Every structure is written in C-alpha cells, then in structure tokens.
C-alpha cells in the first residue's frame, strides 16, 4: 500500500495592501481553503505556457473534450478493469468485452455525447478529432486494447495497484500529487511504474519530455517508500512500442530541484498575477486562443480572490473570504 504523508490544509486566507501580503485567519466556521499542489500535468502546463497553467489551475476555464482524450480515458478504464479478472481470463477477448460496460459508464459524463452529435465536416477523414460514428470510434479503441497484448502478457502480472493516488509533501512544504496507471512490485521489493499511452512513441529528441511524468512518480514513490523504482515503463498503444528507463537516486534529487524551481516560478506568477503566454505549435490545440495576447486576445482580470481562497499567497488586492 502506498504510504501517504500529511495533507494538512492551509489555515489562512491572504489579503494584501499595495505591496505587502497579510495573513488573515479564517472567519469562525469558515472552511479551510484548498491546498495548492503540483501534479505532472500541471507542471508540464507551466513549462509549456504559464498562461495556460493560469487558465486551467487558477481561472479553471472550461475546455472542450476531444475524441482522442475520451478514447484514452476509455482504454485506460478497460485496462484497469482487466486486472479485476482472474489471471487466466485476462485475454484479448475478455478485454474487448469490457469495452461496452466501460463506455456505458463514460458516455454519461458531460460533453462526451456531444462529440458524436455533429456530422463529419469536410476533411473529417484526416482529422483524428472529427466526429464519426460511435461504432467506428469504439472499434478504434478496441484496436488499442488489442495492441496492449503485444506488449505484455497480463496473465503473468499481478499489479499492486492501479490508478493509485500517490502524494508527498517535500521538506519545503510543496505537495506533489499524481495518479499512477499501474504499480508492480516484485517479490524482492523492486518497483516498476507503468503508464499507458494511446499515442505513438515520441522521437528520441522528445523522450525526456515523455519521461518527465514518470520521474515525477518515481520521486514521490522514493520519498514515501524509500525505494528508487527499478523501472519506469511507458507503453505506447498507438504503435505497439515501449519506452523503459531506470532512474537513480542522484537523478531524482536533481529532478526534485527542478520541480522546486518550477514551483517557485509558479508562486511568483501567482503573487504578481503575471502569467506570460508562450506561443508554440501546441497553440493550435488550445481552447483559449480568444483570451491569449499571442492571438490578439485579452485575458480576464486575474482572479485574486479565487487564488487566495485556493490557498495561494498573493500580493494582489483581494477581499477576505
């Protein structure tokens, strides 16, 4: 069982005058604010584009679902459920039978059904996010599930956990949180962290970016269990390839420093409300171009009250909650 460390909440709201942040105790009976934390995805957001991080984490602006993302969720659900079956029944046929019940649970979520309500537009045949028939989309998910069996034999595996929340508070107070797709523990105690990807394996030049998430998990597990993972394993179901990596303790120490530097930059941005956009080719997939200065847009005023209520320290004027 994954060891959990303290997750005590910050007990103050933050108000500021023109330059100095002031800690204000919460009113009697008021609930404590949420505690800011860092996850692999949010750290990656900030590295990619600080303004995107703000929109997702501070403003919490809604974003459209995509067929690719929902398909990934569906495939992950099937592979998680696969290991609920007895080892002998973990076959491709059984996995495909899990598609329909997993889809029945998923399709009721907000924004999912709407993906299939718009008729395919011109060029839909080359657009992976273009609406199509549910049957064809489910078949594409089924192919990814079947490809999993070319990478591993689940009948020979007995994971310790799946979709496991792991978290740790570092000595400086930074809370790291994330969900591990699968954690395997060998009889000798060796750890293997496994993550499923429904895309194809990245080129060698982009491997470090792909491993960022896995090193994050390895760091949390090391800090909670005192064991450096023997293997980090990314399974790419898009092309049936795998990327494996064995970190060492010194590398995790350096990676922890990297996360602390990212967090310091995030705290500075929250304190001042200054989140700069970073225009890259990934902007084509962003839902917030209309609010982005890189595309002629204007971001909404920084929500200082929401940031304070979420436990952030800010030097911007806010109203006590």
Name the descriptors.
two-stranded antiparallel ribbon; disordered N terminus; alpha+beta; 321 residues; five-stranded mixed beta sheet
Describe the structure.
By secondary structure, this protein is an alpha+beta fold. Helices cover 35% and strands 14% of the residues. The chain contains nine helices and seven strands. A five-stranded mixed sheet has the order 3-4-5-6-7. A hairpin with a 5-residue loop joins strand 3 and strand 4. The protein is globular, with a radius of gyration of 22 Å.
Number of strands: 7
Instruction: Note poorly predicted spans.
Output: 1-33, 120-129
Task: Name the structural class.
Answer: alpha+beta
Q: How far is the first residue's CA from the last residue's CA?
A: 38 Å
Count, helices: 9
Which geometry do the CA atoms define? Answer: globular
The major sheet is characterized as: 5 strands, mixed
Average pLDDT, rounded to a whole number, is 85
Q: Share of helix among residues?
A: 25-40%
Order of helices and strands: EEHHHHHHEEEHEEHH
Rounded radius of gyration (Å): 22 Å
Side by side, the strands of the main sheet go 3-4-5-6-7
Strand content: 5-15%
């Amino acid at each position: 069982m994954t060891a959990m460390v303290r997750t005590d909440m910050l007990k103050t709201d933050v108000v500021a005058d023109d330059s100095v942040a002031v800690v204000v105790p919460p009113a009697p009976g008021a609930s404590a604010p949420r505690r800011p934390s860092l996850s692999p995805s949010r750290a990656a957001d900030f590295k990619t584009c600080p303004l995107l991080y703000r929109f997702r984490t501070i403003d919490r602006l809604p974003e459209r679902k995509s067929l690719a993302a929902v398909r990934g969720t569906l495939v992950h659900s099937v592979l998680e459920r696969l290991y609920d079956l007895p080892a002998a029944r973990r076959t491709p046929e059984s996995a495909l039978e899990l598609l329909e019940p997993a889809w029945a649970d998923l399709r009721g979520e907000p924004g999912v059904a709407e993906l299939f309500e718009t008729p395919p537009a011109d060029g839909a045949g080359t657009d992976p996010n273009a609406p199509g028939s549910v049957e064809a989309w489910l078949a594409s998910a089924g192919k990814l599930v079947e490809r999993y069996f070319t990478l591993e034999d689940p009948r020979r595996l007995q994971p310790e956990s799946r979709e496991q929340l792991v978290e740790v508070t570092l000595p400086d107070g930074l809370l790291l949180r994330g969900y591990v797709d699968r954690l395997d523990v060998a009889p000798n105690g060796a750890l293997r962290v496994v993550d499923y990807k429904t895309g194809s394996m990245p080129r060698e030049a982009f491997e470090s970016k792909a491993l960022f998430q896995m090193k994050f998990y390895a760091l949390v597990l090391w800090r909670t269990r005192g064991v450096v993972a023997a293997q980090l394993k990314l399974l790419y179901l898009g092309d049936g390839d795998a990327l494996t990596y064995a970190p060492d303790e010194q590398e995790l120490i350096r990676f922890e420093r990297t996360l602390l530097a990212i967090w310091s930059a995030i705290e500075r941005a929250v304190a001042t409300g200054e989140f700069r956009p970073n225009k890259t080719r990934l902007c084509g997939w962003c839902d917030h171009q209309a609010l982005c200065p890189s595309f002629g847009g204007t971001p909404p005023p920084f929500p200082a009250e929401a940031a304070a209520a979420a436990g952030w320290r800010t030097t911007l004027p806010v109203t006590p909650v």
